[in-house]
Amino acid sequence: MTTQVFIDGAAGTTGLEIADRLAGRSEFSLIALSDAERKDAGARAEALNAADVAILCLPDDAAREAVSLIANDRTRVIDASTAFRVAPGWTYGFPEMVGRETVAQATRVSNPGCYPTGFLGLLVPLLRVGLLPADWPYTVNAVSGYSGGGKALIARFEDDTDIAFRAYGLGLGHKHIAEMQGHAGLKHAPIFSPAVVPAHRGMVVEVPVPIAAIPGAAAPDALRDALKAFYEGSPLVRVRDGVPDELLLRRSDAPRDGLDLYVFGSNDGSQARLVALLDNLGKGASGAAVQSLNLMSGLPETAGLRL
Ligand SMILES: NC(=O)C1=CN([C@@H]2O[C@H](COP(=O)(O)OP(=O)(O)OC[C@H]3O[C@@H](n4cnc5c(N)ncnc54)[C@H](OP(=O)(O)O)[C@@H]3O)[C@@H](O)[C@H]2O)C=CC1
Ligand SMILES: CC(=O)N[C@@H](CCC(=O)OP(=O)(O)O)C(=O)O
Questions:
Q1: For the whole model, what pTM was predicted?
Q2: Which of 55, 75, 131, 263 has the fewest CB atoms within 10 Å, i.e. the most exposed one?
Q3: 293 — phi, psi (to 5°)?
Q4: Mutation test of ligand 1: which of 6, 14, 69, 154 has the most ligand atoms closer than 8 Å to its C-beta?
Q5: What is the pLDDT of residues 185-240, one digit of tens each?
C-alpha cells in the first residue's frame, strides 16, 4: 500500500525540493491541491486529514495552523518550519543524533533548521563524550545560499545582483539560537553570525574552538576521531580527513543531501576550526525531511536522496 503524503506549502522552495525527491517513487502518492485551493483552510484541512504523512513547508504561523487542523490520530507530521523545534512532544528530526528508530516511530517530527544542522552536527557528538564542555560560550559563523530565505530572498537576490555579501542577525536574536542551545544542552546561547552570499544553495557553518583556553577541551585529532566514531556507517554524514587549500561553494553546485564535517587544527594543537559543509535545501531542509519520511515509512533512509 502506498503512503499518502500531503506537502502543505508545496509551491514553496522547500516543498518543491521535497516533491522532486519523491518524484517517481511508487511507495508514495502525493495529495495535490490546485493553485486556487492551496491556501484555502478547508481544502488544506481535508488534505491534511486524508494524508498518512503531512509535510509542512510553511511559515511558522501557517505551520501551527496546519497542525491545529489535523483532527485524527493517524496523520503523522514532519514540520520544516521553526515552530516546533524545541516544543515538547515533538521528535527532533536528526536521526543520526536522536536515533533512527526514534524517528521511525515518531508521529510529530520537527525538521532541523539548516544552520543548526551544521552546528549541532559538529558539536553534539563532542559534547556527549566530554571532549568539549557544555559551559563554554561557543560562537558560530555561517554563510548560506539565498534559497535559505525562501521565495522572498530568492527574488531579492535575483533582482539585485549587485549584493556581494549580506550579514544579518545583527540584533543577536536569530530564531535558530534556541534550537542550537537547546539541542546541544549548552549553558550559554551561542553567538551566531549568519550571512548570505549570492549563490542559490550551499552553506558553510563554522565553530571556532580556542582549545588552549577551554578547560578540558581535547586536541584536534581527538575531536576528529570522536566525530568519525559517532558517524561511523552514516550514509549521509562524512567526516573528512586532510586540509584542503580551500573550501568552495560553487554557484553551479547540484542539490545534495550529505553533510561533510571537518576538524582543522593548528600545528601545536591549541586551536581548531570545526566546519560543516551542506546544502541548505538538502540535509538542511528537504533532504532531511525525506530522510525522516523514509524512516517513518520503514524504507532505507537514503531512498530518493542525492548522495
Ligand atoms: N529554504 C530553506 O533553505 C529552508 C527553509 N526552511 C523552512 O521551511 C519553511 C518553508 O520555507 P521555504 O520553502 O523556504 O519558504 P517559501 O517562501 O519558499 O515557501 C513557503 C510556501 O508556503 C506558502 N504559504 C504561506 N502561507 C500559507 C498558508 N497560510 N497556507 C498555505 N500555504 C502558505 C507560500 O505561498 P506563496 O507561494 O503564495 O508565497 C509558499 O509557497 C519555512 O518555515 C522555512 O523557515 C527550513 C530550512 C531551510
Ligand atoms: C538565508 C536565510 O535567510 N536563512 C533563514 C534560515 C533558513 C532555515 O533554516 O529555515 P528555518 O526558518 O526553517 O529555520 C534565516 O536565517 O532565517
A1: 0.98
A2: 131
A3: -60, -45
A4: 14
A5: 999 999 999 999 999 999 999 999 999 999 999 999 999 999 999 999 999 999 99
Ligand minimally distant from the alpha carbon of residue 149: 2
- DSSP E strand boundaries for the chain: 3-8, 28-31, 53-56, 76-79, 91-92, 108-110, 139-145, 166-167, 191-197, 203-209, 237-239, 259-265, 272-278
- Our count of domains for the chain comes to 2
Prediction ipTM score: 0.96
Tell me whether residue 249 is in a domain: yes
Q: Which atom of ligand 2 lies nearest, measured to the CA of 114?
A: 9
Q: CB of 93 within 8 A of CB of 112?
A: yes
175 lines ligand 1 (CB under 6 A): no
Is residue 307 a part of any domain in this protein?
no
- Is residue 301 one of the residues assigned to a domain? no
CATH number reported for the structural domain that contains residue 204 in this entry: 3.30.360.10
pLDDT tens-digit profile of 257-302?
A: 999 999 999 999 999 999 999 999 999 999 999 999 999 999 999 9
Residue-number span of the structural domain to which 206 is assigned: 114-280
The residue whose CA is least distant from atom 31 of ligand 1 is: 39
Placement of cell 549570492 in the chain: 198
